[in-house]
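Database export, one record per block. Field names are fixed; values are copied verbatim from the stored entry.
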Amino acid sequence: MPVVRLNDTELFYAEVGEGLPCLMMHGGLGFDHTYLHPWLDPLGDVMRLVYYDHRGNGRSGRPPWETLTFQQLCADADALREHLGFEKVAVMGHSMGGTIALEYALRYPERLERLILLDTVPAFDYWENEVEANARRKGATPEQLEALVAYEDDEVGFRRAWKLIEPLYFHTYDVALADRVLAKTVFSVEANKAQAAFLEGWDATLRLSEISAPTLVIVGDDDVVCPLSQARRLHEGISNSELVVFERSGHLPWLEEPEAFFGAVREWLRRT
């Protein structure tokens, strides 16, 4: 798999498919592209998927943690676009990666062809009120509620905390599937902790109207952490957007309702 040096660090990436080039922005932070690849590869029949690990994550470099900012993460994405020779790209961002995708759309509008936002949010002002309530409705234990808001100090603790809350991220939890999805993940507890600093006060809601590219907003109806209420805020704020809700999915609808998910994305790309 290729590694390229850009903006004083190394970015790991992998390409799949043909068609409209699409930068695939993983969430976390502290996870990497492997929970998306190969699971989203079926879209390679309509797009050239460029999976990559953000700086400080996965198989990418570990530059100084103070460089982990929205400005730098977006600059890295655009440098990768330029390195690959694409004049314009689609961007698909999931969860935390969706907030980076939103920032990219706002910072590099002339480079954006399409925007796909998967189970993400325009701000984090809802977290204290909604996330705990959503988790309680799913029967979360006190230990799970605590793990949802804690940052761990080492990789062992990070992995343990994730396995504790993992069932909350699914509508129907399949432990074998979940294990396969994260089997190749290179975790970064440092990146997970570093994101807290640059997320503080982040709010894109008042700028959503600036996004003009065709946008698809996707959400699982049973998503605890990036709920339907926040997908609606995105849809209402971005005028040229469509909202698709998957009723039997949590935070990862391409895993729980793959046929419907891939069909919806392909149909939207065909029409826009």
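Remark 1: The two ends are 32 Å apart (CA to CA).
Remark 2: The beta strands are 3-6, 9-16, 20-25, 47-52, 89-94, 112-118, 215-220, 241-246.
End of record.
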